[in-house]
Amino acid sequence: MTADSTFEIFLVAPPGLEHILCDEARRVGFAAARQVAGGVSFDGTWEDVRRANLYLRGATRVLARIGSFRAFHLAQLDKRARKFPWGEVLRKDVPVKVEVVTNKKSKIYHAGAATQRIETAISEELGAPVAADAPVTLKVRIDDNTCIFSVDTSGEGLHKRGHKVAVGKAPMRETLAALLLRACDYDGLEPVVDPMCGSGTFVIEAAEIAAGLAAGRSREFAFEQLANHDALAWNDERQALPTAKTPNLRFFGSDRNTGAVEMAGQNAARAGVGDLCRFTHAAVSDLQRPDGPPGLVMVNPPYGARIGNKKQLFAVYGALGEVLKSRFSGWRVGIVTSDTALARATGLPFLPLGAPIAHGGLKVRLFRTDPLA
Question: What CA–CA distance (Å, rounded) separates 27 from 30?
Fold first, then answer.
């Protein structure tokens, strides 16, 4: 595969939010992006792989489909894996991890046996070591007797932006936060308030979007370890990153937990948006509307799954709803929770619900409103 080769690029999305990621991908410039099960797909080049990792805020990972072949039994898999042009993508001096997923629709349905055959082919034919903690992961899907090979070009999950060190309990992942903000029609041109901000994820993501910062500007990626990596082009791409805009906006977070407020402030400073964010120690009942134009209240309250007394949560949600209805006229609201009854306790006029979303081992939903009266 050369720098100009075109192949399928697959963007992994949280189930239920594929359409939001597809919209983001098109806005970033991947016009042919199409929504598929589990993510977004489009044909592109290695330059597109780099850009997707660098700029997309909602993608969990970026996979490059590097080839496929048919195999009906393990001996055939072994023979064809040994002839596969691994050296076009993988380096012999960089360890590789192999992950295989198969199903009963294929004659090869034992993932462990298939993994062993592919690992042996890579180590013996290419000479690359195989390791569980390798920086490069080869993902193999065997479906209907077709073996499809993809390289995870991201490495660590893309929610790891590279500048957050402090997180609270059950943190909202940055990638999920970005998609949920987009699902609430946030475009970086309005203020955002989070009255239960935890480590500040919603507030910081909103500020970064408003400042025009690239999501992956502070981290490294697995594609930098591939045989066909164009280091000069990548360096030029990073050098050409847009400088941060200074929007005439501020982003506000508050929390009852003093430690969370301190964490959020530190995280915002490390992300380069400390000057745009204001974090304060306050209960929900003390929440005040910021001066200036209306915007979006985005909150991920406790659900009850990790907190014992659920009756107390109904009071918290009720208080949140009263504050928003009385003080935030003209603002839209987005609430993420796994409990519909708790959401309804706010008394807010929610729009029709979308699909459930996997988060922290639970299924959550986004409850949205139009601008409040």
Answer: 7
Q: Please, what are the averages of pLDDT over each run of 10 residues along the chain (373 residues)? A: 84 95 97 96 97 98 97 96 97 98 91 96 97 97 96 97 72 93 97 96 97 96 97 94 89 95 94 96 95 96 68 92 97 96 96 89 93 97
What dihedral do alpha carbons 116, 119, 121, 125 form, nearest 10°? -150
Least Cα distance to 339 among 302, 309, 312 occurs for 302
Among 158, 136, 162, CA closest to 149: 136
**Contact yes or no for 314/353 (Cβ under 8 A):** no
The 8 Å CB, 24+ separation contacts for 274-277 are 276/207, 276/210, 276/211, 276/247, 276/249, 276/250, 276/251, 277/200, 277/203, 277/204, 277/207, 277/250, 277/251, 277/252, 277/253
E-only strand ranges, the chain: 7-12, 34-36, 39-44, 61-70, 96-102, 136-143, 146-152, 192-194, 251-255, 277-281, 296-299, 332-337, 357-359, 362-368
Cβ–Cβ under 8 Å, residues 112 and 187: no
The residue type of 105 is K
Cβ pair 236, 75 in contact under 8 A: no
- Report yes or no: 277 and 251 within 8 Å, Cβ to Cβ: yes
- Are 279 and 268 spatial neighbours (Cβ–Cβ below 8 Å)? yes
**Contact call for residues 39 and 77 (beta carbons, < 8 A):** no
φ, ψ at 91 (rounded to 5°): -100, 140
CB-count burial class (<10 Å; 0-12, 13-18, 19+) for 183:
buried
Rounded-to-integer distance, Cα 172 and Cα 357, Å: 12
Q: How many C-beta atoms lie closer than 10 Å to residue 277's C-beta? A: 23
pTM: 0.94
- Bridge-based pairing of strands 39-44 and 34-36 is antiparallel
C-alpha 206/C-alpha 332 separation (Å) is 15
Q: Mind giving me the DSSP string for 59-118?
A: -SEEEEEEEEEE-SSHHHHHHHHHHS-GGGT--TTS-EEEEEEE-TTSS---HHHHHHHH
Extract the tokens encoding 20. Answer: 């939001």
